[in-house]
Design a protein that fits this description.
Elements: E1 16-23, H1 26-33, E2 42-49, E3 67-75, H2 86-103, E4 107-110, E5 114-117, E6 120-129, E7 137-145, H3 171-191, H4 197-206, E8 213-217, E9 223-231, E10 237-239, E11 242-244, E12 251-254
Parallel strand pairs: 1-2
Antiparallel strand pairs: 2-3, 3-7, 4-5, 5-6, 6-7, 8-9, 8-12, 9-10, 10-11
Helix pairs in contact: 2-3, 2-4
């Protein structure tokens, strides 16, 4: 990265921020560290990620230093398990705000947590709960396309900051902005005793899916179509009168 990540007042939330040259998966690395109950609010950033993955184990790859590959681990002591579905939505909100503030791009969310610019995917988020251990922990992984060219995109409907005409995007500045926004959102949610009212309002304002006709492809070949009306108290998407979670859907597309 262009310069070392340094301690700032906004980043006091985190107990450690580590940058490595290369790893298989930043999420897998932090899930392994979760076995130590004292590990909490730590961040791992990789210049290159060899075995990155997205939802449903889809591969997520990029050339070295062309992307932000970042994971962060938080302990969820005191958080009702029914509210864990808000963590990926909170992370997506933080990524949108970081992109808007750091680069000025019109970033928005596709439910639940894909980050889009003008309908093209620029970032994905993978949230995984650590198995076992004396303290529950969740790891949020973020993959954000920074300087990929058109021929380097993982899928045709993706984009990058360079392709969105952001001049010389600063990956370190973006990481700092993302972590700052996450810390602000998570701290406010915790201080509100995990009340989701403000978080839900912020998410709705940034979610381009709401109010649009969608087609949800379900495991086994089923389909659910209708207007994406709202999100419920668990962060599930309301399509017509049906509530669906991210785990219920294989693909969500415009109808």
């Amino acid at each position: 990265m262009r310069h070392a990540l340094t301690e700032t007042p906004e980043l006091k939330f985190f107990t450690g921020i580590e940058v490595v040259e290369s790893t298989g998966s930043t999420n897998a690395d932090l899930l392994a560290r979760a076995e130590d109950p004292d590990v909490d609010r730590v961040v791992l950033v990789a210049e290159a990620q060899e075995q990155g993955r997205g939802r449903l184990a889809r591969p997520w790859t990029s050339p070295p230093r062309a992307q932000i590959s970042l994971s962060l681990l938080v302990r969820t002591d005191g958080l009702d398990p029914e509210l864990l579905g808000w963590l990926p939505l909170l992370t997506g909100t933080a990524v949108v705000d970081a992109l808007r503030s750091a680069t000025g791009v019109p970033a928005a969310l596709k439910w639940p947590n894909d980050v889009l610019i003008e309908g093209r995917k620029i970032a994905g988020i993978l949230t995984e709960a650590a198995a076992g251990g004396p303290r529950s922990a969740v790891v949020m992984g973020v993959g954000l396309n920074v300087s990929l060219g058109a021929d380097e995109l993982p899928v045709p409907h993706a984009t990058s900051l360079t392709l969105c005409d952001v001049p010389d995007p600063d990956r370190t500045g973006l990481v700092l902005a993302l972590l700052t926004e996450f810390a602000k959102r998570y701290s406010a949610w915790r201080d509100a005793d995990w009340d989701t009212g403000d978080l839900a309002d912020a998410y709705r304002e940034r979610c381009a899916t709401l109010g649009t006709p969608v087609r949800a492809e379900l495991p086994g070949g089923g389909l659910l179509t209708g207007i994406a009306r709202d999100i419920d108290t668990s962060g599930r998407l309301l399509i017509g009168e049906e509530a669906v979670s991210a785990g219920d859907i294989t693909h969500l597309r415009p109808s």
